[in-house]
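Field reference: sequence -> structure
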Amino acid sequence: MSSTDVGVGVSGKGTARGSDSVLSVRDLSKTFPGQRALADFSMEIHAGEIHALVGHNGCGKSTLIKLITGFHTPDPGATAEFLGESVDLYDAGAPWRDHVHAIHQDLGLIPSMSVIDNIALEHGYLSRAGKISWKAERKRVEKLLRDFDSHVDPRELVDDLSRRDQAIVAIVRAVSGMSDDSSGLLILDEPTATLPEREVQVLFDAVRTAARRGCAVLFVSHRLADVLTICDRVTVLRDGNKVAERSVSGLTRDQLTELIVGNRSASAPNHSGSRFDRRQGNPVLKVQDIATEQLSPLSLTVRAGEIVGIAGLDGSGREDVTRVLSGITNPTGGTVSVGGESLRLGSIKHSLDAGIAMVPRERFPEGLVSSMTISENVTLPSMGDVVKRGRLSRRLEVDEADRWIESMDIRPRQPNKSVVELSGGNAQKVVMAKWMRTRPRVVLLEEPTAGVDVGAKRSIWSMLDGATRDGAAIVATSSDWEELAANCDRVLVLADGVVQAELHGQELTTDSIARNSMGQSLEKREDSNE
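Structure field:
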């Protein structure tokens, strides 16, 4: 099958309507300082079509979405047509973008408002004599929801809805402004990533309904089973370049995986061979059958001096591992021990007392107190050595911070600097310093180098390497497969909440992580749809 096979609607999944073009872009590029995120991209998507956009992390999917929605301005030379007419890609407020609706993983709903109020954010309320006609508004929203086979009470708070119903409300809001005789573009960014398996089919029905109404649907997903189940065509991005566009009909998961991964078999295996010598330490962290709604029972032992990575796509259960171990999330089952002592699950205090340090994904507000300085943040977890005669000593606090600023090469070297004024890399170093200062037995990290420059990445991994020499056991969850392959002793790869592989030695490569991350059971998804 040619990579330019672009037949529309051959699967019948989105009931695509012939050749009615909704959006066509040509020669679309975006360059950031030191990086070309998207290069000469072209695509056409049709009314009634569900068109998938896939690729590994950092391939350019998010950049493309932001260019289409007007968040980013393209490089010069790009052209576009919307509903058959030339449009301006360089005007973020152009009227055609009123017919483009993007729904991201967070859905963009306001939890404290009702369904009626959230849908009204799109186009306002029905009114009479200058007052909102609540009865008419409720009937209108009820009809919109029924069109999508949803029986949610329009008066209910969004916060009280299931994740599935919230997603349906977001879709209804997006398409409610599109009349039956006009088309628009609905962009769904990882719509099933956080949904339980049993609720995915209901969401699929809502997406198909949107397509039948005439929407063109751009379905962005890591979950290949979803793509092969619901989409008509698929476009593959790799390293900012479009490498394939195929009809989904007849396409297998293995073929799609090959298109996404490409010839990455030469990806360097773990080159930190000296770490294997340090696995002689005793077990520090023992995990037995911990489980959550998204995570099937998982068991894991981490030894002193070992770095274990947890890989997987969004929604794979990867994110739950560190959340459970740190006490943030209470699991549905399982046991954990640190140094042979049982850990009380669901308690942040008990995790801290056991010597577990957590470096969260979000630096603000989870990792740092934005109203505090570098020195205040660094000394916050353990203040005993900066207290003199029962009172906090600012001199001791600054001296202690200076030591860690020097050790971590935090810039600028100003302990009284507010952390909100730091770059992403330096802010992350402060988070690392505040926890490493406590000499933890177990270090948990979520996306440890997200949003930091190359130099800061080296510093962070160097610090973690030093922690292993001090006997710490480290667990790092990350979507950066190359970093995991280069810096971890072992990597557990999750898909659909289940460990697909445990990789180590020469088999620990970026390629093997990628393939196992995408190795979700298509048969499982198909069986659930019958």
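Note: Residues 197-212 form the longest helix (16 residues).
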